[in-house]
Amino acid sequence: MERLPSRRRVLGSVAGSFVVLGGCLGGSDDEDEPPRLGAVELRNSHDRAHDVRVTVVDDGETMYQRAVSLDAASEGEATGRVLTGGFDAVEGALTVEYAVDGGERERVRTADLGDEPCYVLLIRVGDDGGVSTFATTGHECSTAQNGSTRS
User: Fold this and answer.
1) Looking at the domain assignment, is residue 113 inside a domain?
2) Distance between alpha carbon 106 and the CA centroid of its chain, in Å?
3) C-alpha distances in angstroms, 107 versus 9, 57, 74?
4) pLDDT tens digits, residue range 68-111?
5) I want to staple 120 with a disulfide (CB 3.0 to 4.6 A). Which of 33, 46, 138, 151 is the partner?
6) The domain containing residue 96 runs over which residues?
7) Is the dihedral of CA 83, 88, 90, 92 positive or negative?
């Protein structure tokens, strides 16, 4: 006659399964949170100076605004600034608006950046004067998390 497992063994197996699968089934609250913005980095690789206006918007309200003049790149060395303005502490989605030399305003939403908890948005003026943006995790994210900020 085949013996059925004891009630204790079945309950132990079920409890163990929940522990093993808990991370897979439950999903964390962090998955719904948009990433934080650790910093906005401005970089100029062009042989001409450029003015960049950066605005960080939280739920329609301007929380940070700065106009920065970037010197021309010299002998292949890019110039730049790292902007931090307390926006790393905001837990909701932010929008970064920027314009180079008074041109058309571009927008980047932190909610669209990816799955990492924190990003640095790089706004780069390239060798040819073209503007591009990149999102990266970097030193500014860990620095901002530790309470030290620059600019």
Assistant:
1) yes
2) 17
3) 57, 10, 29
4) 999 999 988 999 999 987 877 787 789 999 999 999 999 999 99
5) 138
6) 34-145
7) positive
